[in-house]
From TrEMBL, chain A:
<dbReference type="InterPro" id="IPR002293">
    <property type="entry name" value="AA/rel_permease1"/>
</dbReference>
<feature type="transmembrane region" description="Helical">
    <location>
        <begin position="73"/>
        <end position="92"/>
    </location>
</feature>
<feature type="transmembrane region" description="Helical">
    <location>
        <begin position="306"/>
        <end position="327"/>
    </location>
</feature>
<dbReference type="InterPro" id="IPR050367">
    <property type="entry name" value="APC_superfamily"/>
</dbReference>
<feature type="transmembrane region" description="Helical">
    <location>
        <begin position="47"/>
        <end position="67"/>
    </location>
</feature>
<feature type="transmembrane region" description="Helical">
    <location>
        <begin position="262"/>
        <end position="286"/>
    </location>
</feature>
<keyword id="KW-0812">Transmembrane</keyword>
<keyword id="KW-1133">Transmembrane helix</keyword>
<feature type="transmembrane region" description="Helical">
    <location>
        <begin position="158"/>
        <end position="176"/>
    </location>
</feature>
UniProtKB/TrEMBL annotation, chain B:
<dbReference type="Pfam" id="PF00582">
    <property type="entry name" value="Usp"/>
</dbReference>
<feature type="domain" description="UspA">
    <location>
        <begin position="158"/>
        <end position="225"/>
    </location>
</feature>
<dbReference type="InterPro" id="IPR006016">
    <property type="entry name" value="UspA"/>
</dbReference>
<protein>
    <submittedName>
        <fullName>Nucleotide-binding universal stress protein, UspA family</fullName>
    </submittedName>
</protein>
Length: 473, 247
């Protein structure tokens, strides 16, 4: 990839050019002309980002909502989501090993399909992550209120949004000022969460299967028919949005050719299994009506059903940790997404400034945190989740298309260490499924999603119409 | 010729004392300018903003160590983990020694500490190479609870140094704990040479001995790197560092 890239990348409306330099990638560092960039994240760090981003939503927010929509067949909805996520994770892995740089999906699409697609995806990814983070924060708010309730302090749901806003602002400020190594903390949180969940699900699973405890009340598997199973899959797809976030730190992964595919595919498989088992356990405990009634924090009552107060406390605690880790991981990914488009002159260069005092990208973090708070204030859980999924699914579909385009031309620089198995079926199916899931969403979410895409396309024509990114490594 | 790695936190205003450049004059030097970033910041983002400033500062430093005579060069690395970067660049450049910088003027006497588990021979031959025919004295220091074996080790190590006309003294410490005795002894010397220790529970809890000595004494500390690590790395190829050091 060191060969002469096209001499110019064009300029944006302010006369800035993409800041692209030839680099040499090794297992342990990226080497540019003057400097080296150390790769410091290992496989466990990559898995922690993927799992940590995903697990909060799928287990601690969705089971109640999903079971309400699809009955026990919600487990099938989660399984469908996992299959679609895998169909996208494999092509994403190939592209990430061919271009192990910060920016993830945006980077692959802008290099494979050109600047227009790149701008739409890059800016939509920013908004998609903002919607996702707001969704995680609202989930966090529900768990915070429930935690207080478990402690005997009843404050009512009126405090959900204020709590979410407070913590959203807190995360943003902490990310600007905090220089402690939170990666280790994140790894610990994810490990602790997985332990709680595996223990709980193992017990609940045995109970639900009728091996211990009281036999469960049987309910029809898909009481509302097949269509809700798919529309629920579209809703809960938000629980799988984390795997591509692994690609946003591709430039910092050690041995990217091995660790990136393992981290992306591995995190999807791990959370997919946990989700399906969770929904099975939840729908075995209560009927769908009861779960709908319990809403966002239905899992707390499921915990109480199986293990009494201890179970409820374990789930409340897990829910707090999980939604917090999802929100925090997404704030970080958002800031990286903004950096990636700003480096390519699709946003003003000032957006990627780092402040001298803390060494953190305060402008990008602010551009993440501000909109997140506005959206959190709306408190519309399902809308937030679906718009986030919409914008991510567009990116996922285009990632698959970019892979097909690159494989067809196979430019000289394209030399991935990992090649997707089952080509071309996997990327073709991945693209079709990604776009198809969008079709099952609520009309409101689709309109908001399309509106955002039109805005970003308009921005491209106004601001960056002359920027040339295709094949510009 | 031995290559010494001098890691410097280049954008934190860390400077290198003149005495260190003078002491290291006979060896090849790689100045490693590194900048540690919080994980919120992609290293590439910091590079875009700080590369020019860091490169200017590094060029000046490398000149002090003899870049113009061809005995010094520099590397610039943006990283989340300084220790990993120092390890990698040391292995990459084949540096046998790394320096922990500290304030010092002209160097008259080195404290060379020997420990039974660090190759005495390599430390002694590095010291001989470092001093050459300069008027720098050496105190060989050993902390042990076995007095007779300790004396023998000190005599064996002192032999080749005095043969080269270096003024050698020996100091055997039977006091406990050894590290505190070493830090006391370092106070009367201008710089310390010691071997890198194998990682142990103790180094995990208290930090590497060399870093503690550097923190307690004011002078620079030259750490002779362990060979076992290098051997493993060469045998397994450069790609395999990844897993043992996962975050």
């Amino acid at each position: 990839m060191g060969d002469a890239s096209p001499p110019t990348g064009g300029t944006n409306v302010e006369g800035e050019t993409p800041r692209i330099e030839p680099t040499v990638e090794t297992e342990e560092a990226t080497i540019t002309d003057e400097a080296e960039l150390e790769r410091t994240l290992g496989l466990s760090g990559g898995l922690a980002i993927g799992i940590g981003t995903m697990i909060g939503a799928g287990i601690f927010v969705f089971p109640g909502l999903a079971a309400g929509n699809a009955g026990p067949a919600a487990a099938a909805s989660f399984a469908i989501g996992a299959v679609v996520a895998l169909l996208v994770a494999l092509p994403t892995s190939e592209l990430a090993t061919a271009m192990p740089k910060s920016g993830g999906g945006y980077y692959f699409i802008s290099r494979g399909l050109g600047t227009l697609a790149g701008t739409v995806v890059g800016l939509s990814l920013w908004f998609g992550l903002v919607f996702a983070t707001a969704f995680y924060l609202v989930g966090f708010g529900y768990y915070a209120v429930d935690t207080l309730a478990e402690l005997g302090i009843t404050v009512g749901e009126g405090l959900v949004i204020p709590t979410a806003l407070l913590f959203g602002a807190g995360f943003t400020v902490l990310n600007v000022t905090g220089t402690e190594n939170a990666a280790k903390l994140q790894n610990g949180v994810v490990a602790l969460l997985l332990s709680i969940l595996v223990a709980f699900l193992a017990y609940g699973g045995l109970d639900a299967a009728g091996l211990i405890g009281d036999p469960a009340a049987p309910e029809q598997f898909a009481p509302f028919g097949a269509v809700p199973v798919f529309s629920t899959a579209a809703l809960v797809f938000t629980s799988y949005l984390g795997f591509a976030q692994v690609a946003t730190v591709a430039g910092e992964m050690k041995s990217p050719g091995r660790n990136l595919p393992l981290a992306m595919v591995g995190s999807v498989v791990i959370v997919g299994v946990l989700y399906v088992v969770t929904v099975f356990v939840a729908t075995s405990a209560f009927g769908s009506d009861r779960l709908t009634e319990l809403g966002e924090t239905a899992m707390v009552e499921v915990g109480r059903h199986y293990l009494g107060t201890a179970g409820a406390v374990a789930i409340v605690f897990g829910g707090l940790l999980a939604t917090m880790s999802s929100a925090n991981a997404s704030v970080l990914s958002t800031s990286r997404a903004i950096y990636a488009v700003s480096r390519d002159a699709l946003l003003p260069a000032g957006a990627s400034r780092i402040n001298l005092r803390y060494g953190t990208p305060h402008v990008a973090l602010g551009l993440a945190g501000g909109p997140i708070l506005v959206l959190t204030a709306t408190g519309r859980v399902e809308l937030l989740a679906e718009v986030a999924s919409f914008l991510h699914l567009i990116m996922y579909g285009l990632i698959c298309v970019a892979l097909l385009a690159l494989r067809r031309d196979e430019p000289d620089w394209y030399d991935p260490e990992f090649r997707v198995p089952g080509y071309p079926a996997v990327p073709v199916l991945g693209a079709i499924c990604s776009f198809a899931l969008i079709g099952f969403m609520q009309r409101a979410s689709q309109l908001v999603g399309v509106g955002i895409m039109l805005l970003t396309a308009g921005w491209y024509f106004y601001y960056a119409g002359d920027v040339e990114l295709r094949g510009n490594l | 010729m031995t290559r010494t790695l001098v890691p410097v936190a280049i954008l934190e205003g860390e400077s290198v004392p003149a005495g260190l450049a003078e002491l290291l004059e006979p060896t090849d030097v790689t100045v490693l300018g590194y900048h540690v970033l919080p994980e919120q910041t992609p290293p590439d983002q910091a590079r875009l903003q700080y590369e020019d400033r860091a490169t200017d500062a590094l060029e000046d430093l490398a000149r002090e160590f003899g870049a113009e005579e061809g005995t010094a060069d520099y590397r610039l690395v943006f990283t989340h983990d300084a220790e990993q970067t120092i390890e990698r660049v040391a292995a990459d450049t084949g540096a046998g020694v790394y320096a922990i910088t500290g304030a010092t003027g002209p160097i008259d006497r080195l404290l060379v500490t020997l420990t039974s588990d660090v190759a005495v021979e390599r430390i002694v031959s590095f010291v001989a190479e470092l001093i050459g025919d300069r008027e720098i004295g050496v105190t060989l220091f050993l902390a042990t609870d076995d007095e007779s074996a300790g004396r023998e080790l000190l005599e064996t190590a002192a032999g080749p140094l005095s043969e080269r006309g270096i003024d050698v003294r020996t100091q055997l410490s039977l006091e406990e704990p050894p590290l505190e005795a070493l830090i006391d002894a370092a106070a009367d010397h201008d710089a310390v040479v010691m071997g890198e220790q194998a990682p142990s529970l103790r180094t995990l809890v208290f930090g590497e001995a060399a870093e503690r000595v550097a923190a307690e004494s004011f002078g620079p500390v030259l750490v002779v790197r362990r060979l076992e690590g290098e051997d493993e790395r060469e045998a397994a190829g450069s790609s395999s560092l990844s897993d043992g050091r996962d975050e």
